[in-house]
Design a protein that fits this description.
Mean pLDDT: 91
Structural class: mainly alpha
Low-confidence stretches: 1-7
Number of helices: 11
Order of helices and strands: HHHHHHHHHHH
């Protein structure tokens, strides 16, 4: 490399690296996202969100140990970031560690009480451990939040799930109003 050719971190700012990493992640280029997140983290080692996002890219590639390591590091740097607990909970769920998944979804909802996806996913973990009746409580609340937040696709998905379990038309009955 000649002296006139800048190193990647010299030519791209931390925020440029994060934008590039996010774009690559959204385009399902998870390996490319990991490279950019790693460069951004090298430039700013205490960026908990970048570490969490790199963990998400590792998770998408099936590198659960790397994802867990990043989630744990991110939580150590910013223990009030609900998204990191949510993502770590999803990783735990994917390996059938439902107790830890529930604990992380609990923490995510404590930190962000309107986190509809955390309630929804906790419902799935509850179903695995305790059955559908326990899950229904979270799914009903998640449906209510999805509706309030204008996420009608997720709202309908959860309502359909509830209806399959209960045999009722939840939206028509007013149960989720």
């Amino acid at each position: 490399m000649s002296q006139s050719t800048p190193l990647p971190t010299e030519s791209r700012s931390h925020s440029d690296l994060l934008r590039g990493a996010k774009a690559k992640y959204q385009a399902s280029d998870y390996q490319g996202a990991i490279v950019d997140y790693t460069l951004a983290i090298a430039a700013q080692t205490d960026d908990a969100l970048a570490i969490c996002c790199r963990g998400a890219a590792y998770y998408k590639l099936g590198a659960g140990k790397n994802a867990l390591s990043d989630y744990n590091r991110s939580i150590a740097l910013d223990p009030k970031a609900a998204i990191t607990y949510y993502r770590r909970g999803s990783l735990y769920y994917s390996i059938a560690d439902y107790q830890n998944a529930i604990a992380d979804y609990n923490r995510a909802t404590e930190l962000q009480p309107d986190f509809a996806f955390a309630y929804s996913n906790r419902g799935y973990a509850y179903r695995e451990l305790y059955g559908e009746q326990e899950a229904l409580i979270d799914w009903r609340f998640a449906a209510k939040l999805f509706k309030e937040q204008g996420n009608l696709a997720q709202y309908q998905h959860i309502v359909d799930l509830i209806d399959r379990i209960t045999g009722l038309d939840s939206s028509a009955s007013g149960m989720l109003s």
